[in-house]
Amino acid sequence: MSYRPAMSDAGLSPTHPVIAVDEFGESRDMHIAGEFPLTIKVDEREVVTLMTLGTYPEALTLGYLRNQRLVERLEEIEAVEVDWDREQVSVSTSHGQGIIDWENKLSKRTVTTGCAQGTVFSCTLDKLYDVRLPEVRLSQAVLYELLKNIASQNEIYKRAGAVHGCALCRGSEILTFVEDVGRHNAADAISGMMWLEGEPGEDKVFYTTGRLTSEIVMKCALMGIPAILSRSGITHMGLELAIDHIDCTLLLVGEL
Q: Beta partners for 49?
């Protein structure tokens, strides 16, 4: 069994009931997506504040630390405790010293095009160029079947809108589907789940409802996933990173 730190189970409901007035002046019951600040602290030192639905706060925290390469090994983490009253998650490490080489790792930050303005640290970029992923091929039949299966997901979006969805897939099978107010949060939550389960990425496909920016490409590469599928657009830097440095396969799918 894979190592698992002690963790809270503090997921929130992703939607919240409200009463709205439609264009005819009639009151209607509906649901809207949640959005809450969650400040990540590692051994009492503040790292970042994320805006999230709050459905998978523990996995989101682990995935963020993993994808930013602020913590290298899951075994370094002893506990992850979410306290929504204080709007924070406390991460305790086995060595009690917080993030090793803290000042160097956090010395440079790049604000990305991620929803709610994501951040990439210099240590993330340094590790990226060590990544080389295997070539992957997907048949048209598998691709179409996967998209058909994806259509049955997006439950929060269908109910309330205002969210992005990301999926971890093997062939046409959807292993995990996560929605959040930002696609980078959904990707991090999936990464955290993979870390906890010891799930490798080399035989997986990553799907997102959002655009393929450099940040999403980096996250997938650091998760070891060689194929990225999106029905949205791609940025120049995202494509450049995928082709020139990671040899990722990008599958851009129009309205099929």
A: 39
CB 212 within 8 A of CB 234: yes
Query: DSSP letter at 212?
Result: B
Q: Are 84 and 106 in contact (CB under 8 A)?
A: no
Q: Say what the pTM is.
A: 0.88
pLDDT tens profile 194-214: 999 999 999 999 999 999 988
Using an 8 Å Cβ cutoff, are 8 and 81 in contact?
yes
**What is d(CA 106, CA 69) in angstroms, rounded to the nearest whole number?**
11
Section 18-34 average pLDDT: 94
Read out DSSP for 1-42? Answer: -----EE---PPPSEEEEEEE-TTS-EEEEEEE--EEEEEEE
The residue with tokens 């439950």 is: 155
Q: Which of 27-31, 119-123, 168-172, 190-194 is predicted least confidently?
A: 119-123
Question: What is the distance between the alpha carbons of residues 48 and 120, in angstroms, rounded to a whole number?
Answer: 11
Report the alpha-carbon distance of residue 247 to residue 228 in Å, rounded.
11
State residue 180 phi and psi, 5-degree precision.
Answer: -155, 170
Share the mean pLDDT of the chain.
87
**Amino acid type, 198:** G
**Helix (H) or strand (E) run with residue 64 in it:** helix 57-67
Q: How many CA atoms lie within 13 A of 239 on its CB side?
A: 7
Cβ burial of 113 (10 Å; 0-12, 13-18, 19+) is middle
